[in-house]
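User: Here's a chain of 104 residues. Predict its fold as tokens.
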Amino acid sequence: MTNDVTIVRIYLREADRGRRESLMKEILKVLHDQHRVKGVTVFRGVAGFGETDEVYGADLLHILTSLPLVIEFFDTSPRVETAIEALNGLLPAEHIVSWPAVQR
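Assistant: Prediction complete.
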């Protein structure tokens, strides 16, 4: 049996702050506590850059606390749409990408 799901990726940095705590923690609370999405994983990048073209990275000589993070989650399309709406205002919409997938 297969199920249609939507996969979402959210791009941010470790240093990004939410309203009360780190943005990552606030997003995780929304996805877990409010919307109970099926699965969430947070990936910590070793380097990256965004709109400012400033490269963020870590090496042995200079470890930054502003490394890139990717939060990935999936669920049914209606639940994903509701969860994304709840994230409005926490981060720019262009930091969120999604695509359909099949759960096997």
